[in-house]
Amino acid sequence: MQNTEQKFLKELDNKLWKAADKLRANMDAANYKHVVLGLIFLKYVSDAFEERQEELLKLFKTDSGDNIYFMSRDDFDSEEDYHQALQDELEQLDYYREANVFWVPKAARWSTLREKAVLPIGTVLWQDDASNDVKLRSVSWLVDNALEEIEKHNKKLKGILNRISQYQLDNEKLLGLINTFSDTSFTKPVLNGEPLNLQSKDILGHVYEYFLGQFALAEGKQGGQYYTPKSIVTLIVEMLQPYSGRVYDPAMGSGGFFVSSDKFIEEHASEQHYDAEEQKKHISVYGQESNPTTWKLAAMNMAIRGIDFNFGKKNADTFLDNQHPDLRADFVMANPPFNIRDWWSESLADDVRWKYGTPPKGNANFGWMQHMLHHLAPTGSMALLLANGSMSSNTNNEGEIRKRLIEEDLVECMVALPGQLFTNTQIPACIWFLTKDKANGLVRNEKKRDRQGEILFIDARNIGYMKDRVLRDFTSDDIAKVTDTFHAWQKGEGYEDVAGFCKSASFDEIKKHDFVLTPGRYVGAEAEEDDGIPFADKMARLTGTLKEQFAESDRLEAEIKTNLAGLGYEC
Description:
Elements (H helix, E strand, L loop, with lengths): L2 H19 L7 H33 L17 H12 L3 H4 L12 H8 L6 E4 L5 E3 L3 H15 L17 H12 L7 E2 L2 E2 L4 H20 L1 H4 L5 H11 L4 E5 L6 H12 L1 H4 L3 H5 L2 E5 L4 H14 L3 E2 L18 E6 L30 H10 L1 E12 L10 H10 L3 E6 L12 E7 L18 E6 L5 E2 L5 E2 L2 H16 L10 E5 H6 L7 H4 L11 H32 L5
Parallel strand pairs: 5-6, 5-8, 6-7, 8-9, 10-12
Antiparallel strand pairs: 1-2, 3-4, 9-11, 10-11, 12-15, 13-14
Helix pairs in contact: 1-7, 1-8, 2-7, 2-8, 2-14, 5-7, 10-11, 10-17
C-alpha cells in the first residue's frame, strides 16, 4: 500500500476511534463495541450497496450495443416514467447478488438513518404493512429497526445483529457518532486533493479490523480472545495458500482467517491468472465459536465482505457440541486459547477424535490439534497456533501424542514466533503445520515434492519490528521470508538450510532429540559474517585487548582503594 493510502487510513482510524471512544464515559468496552461495530456494519453494507447502485445506474443509461442492462428512454412515454423505471430496476435484488454485494433494504440504508435521526422524537417516519404510522422513538430504536430490517432480508443473519437500545444511549451522543461516520468519503477517498486507489470495501474492512484490535486492547485478556494479530493470520494464510476448497476454523473468533483467505485470493488473482470473484465461489468457509458475542461478530464480519459461511446453528463448545461432525476440510486454520485447563468432560473419554492419544484433562492443546486432524481431508493441510510448551512437553501423555504425530508423518513444518505479538498474552507461541499428504500422491493444482520423513524448522524469533512500546509486528518482507522458505522447501526449488533460521531435519535427527520439535534445537546458531581476518591473528588481537582491559581494571581498583584510604576507610 502506498504511503498516502496508509496515511489516509491512519487518520481515519484516529478520527473514528476518537468519536467512538466518547461512548466509554457511559458504558464499558464490552458493551460499547456492540454499538460501534453495529454502526460500522450498517455504514459498510450501505456504502457497498450505494456503490453498486451507481454502477447499475450507469449501465442502465449506457447504450454500448452489447450492454444487456441498457434501458432506452425511447421505451417510455415520459421522463418521469423513465426515471421511475430506473429507480424500480435499482431495487431488484438479483443485481446485487450477482456482484456479491450485500442487499440493504431502504429502512436500513445509511442515508435513511442519517436523514431520520435528526428528526424530533415522535415524528411519523413511514407507514407499516398494515398502514399504521411508524413514529421515531429514539435514535437507538432507529438503528435497531435498521438491523431488524437487514435480518428480515438476509436469513443467515437472523438473530445475529446485536440491538443497541438495551444500552440506553443518549440520543445526542449516538447522533454525534452517526454524523462522524457520515462525514467521511468512503467510496471516493481523497487525501490532500489526491484520489486514492481504495474501495469502500478496503476502507471499512480496515476500520472494522482496527476497531476489533482496539477493543481487544481496551478489554484486556477477555476481549483479546476473539482477536488474532493480523500479521500472524496473514502469515498462516500465505503459507497454506487456500485458493479453493473447504476452509475450517474450529475456534474462529471474529473470522480473521476467513477474511484473510478472501484477501489472499484477491491479492494473488493477477499472478495466478484468474478472476478473483469467480475464484471465491470455489471457497466454502466453516467455523465454530463458543462465545455468543464473538459468534455474532464473525457472522457480521462475513456479511460485510459478502463471504458465504456456515457457522453452525448456534454458538457452541467445539469439543462437546461439534457443529460440523461430517466436515472434512481442505484447509484448517485456528488460534484457540492457549493452555485451556477447564475443558474436559467425561463424555470425551473415548472420543473418536483422539486417534493419536487421549489429551491431558488439564490442557486442551492436543485436543485442539486432534480435533482439527479429525476434520482434515485426505489431501488437506492445517495450521495451528499454540504455546511453545506444545513442542517439548512430555507431561500427561503430551510427549506420546507428539511422538505419534511425528511417526505418522503428519508434521510438515514448525515455526517459532517472536514474543510480544499478542495484545492479551506474553506467552511465547509457535505455529504447527500438518498435512495428511506429504507424499503429494494425489492430484494438486501445484505439484510439490515428496516430503515424507522430513520436517522443516523455521526459527522466526528474530524477525519483525516493534510497532510501539508493547507490540511487535511483521513487515510484508518478514512474512515473505518465512513463506518463500516454506514453499521453496515444499517444491524442492531453491531451498537451502540457513544456520540460525531454517533447517530441514530427517526423522532420525528428530528421534535423537527425543521428538522435541523446538526449531532452535535444529537450526543452530546464526553464522557470523567472515571479516577476512585469519583466526590466529584475530585471537592474538582479542587476547591483547583482554590483557589491556585487565591491566586497566587493576589500575582503577588500586586508585579506588587509595581514594577510600584518604577518606579514612580501610579496604
